[in-house]
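We append the chain.
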Amino acid sequence: MSAVERLRASMSLFEKCWPSVVRGIVAVRLGNLTGMAISVSYHRNLTHRAFKLPKWLEYSLAYCAAHAIQGDPIDWVSTHRCHHLYADTGRDPHSPIYGFWFSQMMWFFDSYNLTKKNNVRDLEKQWFYRFMHKTYWLHPLALSVLLFAIGGVPYVIWGMGFVLIELIVVREVRSELACNIYGQFALITFGEGWHNNHHAFEYSARHGHEWWEIDIGWYIIKFLQAIGLATCVKLPSQTQKLAALNKSKPRLS
């Protein structure tokens, strides 16, 4: 086979594979964007008020997070605030005392616990979050329609499929069971894997307290702070971290 024929064969193979490559890139980018927004927006910004953003950026990130198919901001924040208030007790919306499957998945269908929203007055006062709460499912549906318009059914399968993977990874791997054991999950959950750190200092914008604890969500917040968009960033002091460490050590009788 001559060099020209080899080049033609390579180009033909490239043309056949290129659509799949593009779909893969779109899927990964979409999944990463929604997963990042869950961590930075829903979790650290809206739930714990670990930092402040201009409203246009706050709403933009929350809108991206809404496409992770984890619920609208009011529902998500309400559930997570309840989780911190009643962690690992019978009133925790995804309490482990009801068994593995409930804490990992079935709690999502517990409408009784998931309809208590008296702890999100700050969000309910804002028109944007009320609008998202009332129209939530229209937005992931609109994304699916957009993907279909761009590339047909394959784009919908790849794009929304990867969002669902992010749903499983960010929601489930962020759970106590996985993250208390495997901090390295922080790499694929934008820092959510440092779950013990987070529960020790839930107000902190940073979950990875040490330099080697990778926390991509924090790196994004730090960048936003550097360019003047993130303000009032809350972090624990070294004294507070040492006090928490000493408190967690077992006492010898």
Summary: The two ends are 81 Å apart (CA to CA). The chain is about 60% helix and 0% strand.
